[in-house]
Amino acid sequence: MSGPQCCSNPPAVDPASGAGHVENLAGFNTYVSGSLQSKLAVLLVSDVFGYEAPNLRKLADKVAAAGFYVVVPDFFYGDPYVSDKPDRPFTVWIKDHAPAKGFEDAKLIIDALKSKGASSIGAAGFCWGAKVVIELSKVALIQAAVMLHPLFVTVDDIKGVKLPIAILGAEFDNVSPPELIKQFDDILKASKVDSFVKIFPNCAHGWTLRYDVDDATAVACADEAHKDILEWFTKYVK
């Protein structure tokens, strides 16, 4: 299910980006934005390029500005995928960073957020991160979920979802093509789970994070997806 699209167009990583700060949360370097006083938390789980991507941190700041305490942990332990390492292609890198490990790590973050007083938690996962979030959704450790251009997510995963979930896919996505996203939609519609499924026309895998800030059309598409994320969390994380 993974392919060149998943690893293409890498962002320019910037450890100093964002209006928030990095702190240790449950043993993970974590980008944090917003105030815990709201008691409403959002976990953002990155794509394969990791938590230092500037557009991911911009999104975290945007969600925080809407009243949420947002955390973006480094589930890759300082080892995000690097596309220009021919000796360590994706097939090798992923062996060290299976989403199953990310799921176990995410449970530690959820526990830490609850210990800090968070009363309601949402989670959004991008590409690799979507598989982590779908696993959280199957055991109802959060209140709401969003998956964006998911990687490794299967029909059986969707059948196991136990909480409100939004799925945002792209028209041009070889990783999770529109046909698969429509299958997800059909399964969710037949279940009792609240859901929102949308396929973005003229967009490709990774469009929500790996967009060119100087491309007005790309920015508008990403902004639309970010608006959908916010609306979903505002509705269900309360």
Automatic annotation (TrEMBL):
<dbReference type="Pfam" id="PF01738">
    <property type="entry name" value="DLH"/>
</dbReference>
<dbReference type="InterPro" id="IPR029058">
    <property type="entry name" value="AB_hydrolase_fold"/>
</dbReference>
<protein>
    <recommendedName>
        <fullName>Dienelactone hydrolase domain-containing protein</fullName>
    </recommendedName>
</protein>
<dbReference type="InterPro" id="IPR002925">
    <property type="entry name" value="Dienelactn_hydro"/>
</dbReference>
<feature type="domain" description="Dienelactone hydrolase">
    <location>
        <begin position="29"/>
        <end position="236"/>
    </location>
</feature>
